[in-house]
Design brief:
The structure is a single chain. By secondary structure, this protein is mostly helical. It has one domain: Up-down Bundle (Growth Hormone, Chain: A), CATH 1.20.1250.20. It has 19 helices and no strands. The chain has helices spanning 3-12, 24-40, 49-56, 65-88, 90-109, 114-142, 146-177, 182-185, 187-201, 215-243, 256-278, 286-290, 292-322, 327-333, 335-355, 357-375, 384-411, 419-458, 466-498.
């Protein structure tokens, strides 16, 4: 398509201030595809890790970078990506993000060594940091009617809650029946379709007023978030490595370099906050975070992200290492969560305009916590339908009831100027929460495993027995599920006490059409 043709297509897809955009539901369908792309790519490679490591001769100590390279750049660049979307144009940022993600995926599939693969994953994260906030900001400005916006966010909530499980399933199928490289190449046709469809369908919108970039703020928060994410990831890596047979059993929190990165990251984020309070046109206006309802939503998002990672990470290990499921079987076994999300997200979209966000967020947090607590009773010989199925279904129902009102509340009232920044903040809290949760739950899991071995030895048992080792693993997983449930209960309490918004506080925002 030539530049004049692209220009004409873009002009046909514009938001008007007098009526809702007529192709908004088609636009949502296109945007939903790329949201799924970003979310499932965080987990699609997980099941393929052994195959990738064997093929490219990546050591056990280095293979975590296949995941970490993605989460570092994704988490680090999110806030900058959100502001680029606001100022440069949300559609334009969306298209560049999708195209860059496709190119990075192609490079990942073609990787011949670990350096090329790690670099491709880092590029995926960087372009994902453009794509994710641009997508969510577009939904915000496209849907201004309260009921329609609730339905649109139901789609987002279903994808956010179920995308990780779908990634595990797809990764298992592609690894077992094709090749691990297809875990990357599968993104190409999806991204190309999204780009071709978005040009005539998705409308452009930009922030009005001052659109100058806060470069010092961008540097501080990018380095700060990346440092925090890496520090917590390193804690998790050390904890998991020490839990392996022959490992020291020590906590990852004793690793000095991890603590250095976490400390440096916290200081950089604190410096960023001080700078933003003094800057005329900040990267993240503090009004976005300091609003009681949005602040409560972001804190809840962090806690949900921290608890959710415990479900998918440890449950996948339980299916494969304890129940001896194949990658495909483990992927299928993770689908009840997605089923629960699909059921509750639809119900939540109808209920948000009637009861407001708070009751649903509290209910969702408690249901999800109940699901994780159910799985804390898993044993070495537990049947799938006995605990894993009902636990995952409850978890999915809770996530659907949480993510739909959470997404609505985190962006409502942010205004057209800050839609991208507010979207990026929601994504960033989930990403940082996931990093913290991985480190915290991995440490608690390792502690439980070590204690079990110690108790067996003290009672005269044989800690080297395979049966004892398997039981120790289950002790670690169930401990992680228990504490993940605690995090989600805390998230429900945060929603109950901090969020004051009612259904009357979710008005139509026709003004955003001025974008």
């Amino acid at each position: 398509m030539t530049d004049p043709e692209l220009s004409r297509a873009s002009r046909r897809a514009e938001l008007r201030d007098d009526e809702p955009y007529e192709k908004r539901w088609l636009a949502l369908a296109v945007i939903a595809v790329t949201i799924l792309l970003v979310i499932l790519d965080a987990t699609i490679v997980n099941i393929a890790l052994p195959a990738v490591s064997t093929d490219l001769e990546i050591s056990a100590a280095s293979q975590q970078w296949i995941v970490t390279a993605y989460t570092l750049t994704f988490g680090g660049f999110l806030l900058l990506g959100g502001r680029i979307a606001d100022f440069w144009g949300r559609k334009r940022t969306y298209l560049v993000g999708a195209a860059g993600f496709a190119v990075a995926s192609a490079l990942g599939g073609l990787a011949q060594n670990e350096a090329m693969l790690f670099g491709a994953r880092a590029l995926q994260g960087a372009f994902g940091a453009l794509l994710a906030p641009a997508s969510l900001a577009l939904i915000t400005v496209l849907f201004t009617d309260t009921k329609e916006r609730a339905k649109a966010f139901a789609v987002y909530g279903a994808i956010a809650g179920g995308g990780s499980a779908i990634g595990l399933l797809l990764g298992g199928v592609l690894t077992e029946y094709a090749d691990w490289r297809w875990c990357f190449w599968v993104n190409l046709p999806v991204a190309i379709f999204a780009i071709v469809a978005a040009i005539p369908i998705v409308p452009e919108s930009k922030a009005p007023g001052d659109t100058s970039y806060d470069i010092p703020g961008a540097v501080l928060i990018t380095l700060g978030l990346a440092s925090v994410v890496y520090g917590f990831t390193r804690v998790a890596m050390e904890s998991q490595e020490n839990a392996q047979p022959g490992g020291s059993g020590a906590s990852g929190w004793s690793e000095p370099l991890a603590l250095l990165f976490i400390g440096a990251g916290v200081l950089l984020v604190a410096a960023f906050v001080v700078l933003e309070l003094k800057t005329r046109n900040p990267l993240l206006p503090m009004r976005i975070v300091l609003d009681r309802n949005r602040g409560g939503a972001y804190l809840t998002s962090t806690l949900v992200g921290a608890g959710l990672i415990g479900a998918f990470f440890f449950l996948s290990l339980y299916f494969q290492q304890v129940l001896q499921y194949t990658p495909v079987a483990a992927g299928f076994a993770s689908l009840p969560t997605t089923l629960g999300v699909l059921l509750s997200a639809g119900a939540a979209s109808a209920l948000v305009p009637k009861v407001g966000p708070k009751p649903l967020m509290v209910l969702g947090g408690l249901l999800a916590a109940a699901g994780l607590f159910t799985m804390s009773f898993l044993k070495v010989d537990s049947g799938f339908w006995e605990l894993a199925f009902p636990g995952q279904l409850l978890l999915g129902l809770g996530l659907g009831f949480t993510f739909v009102p959470l997404s609505n509340l985190a962006l409502i009232g942010a205004g057209v100027h800050d839609a991208g920044a507010a979207s990026a903040m929601l994504n960033a809290t989930q990403q940082v929460g996931a990093s913290i949760g991985t480190a915290l739950l991995a440490t608690l899991s390792v502690g439980a495993i070590t204690n079990y071995f110690t108790d067996v030895a003290a009672s005269g048992g044989d800690p080297s027995s395979p049966a004892v080792g398997l039981q120790a693993q289950v002790e670690g997983y169930t401990t992680a599920f228990t504490w993940a449930a605690v995090l989600l209960v805390i998230g429900a309490l945060v929603s109950a006490f901090l969020i004051k918004a009612t259904k009357e506080d979710l008005p139509d925002e026709a003004a955003v059409h001025a974008a």
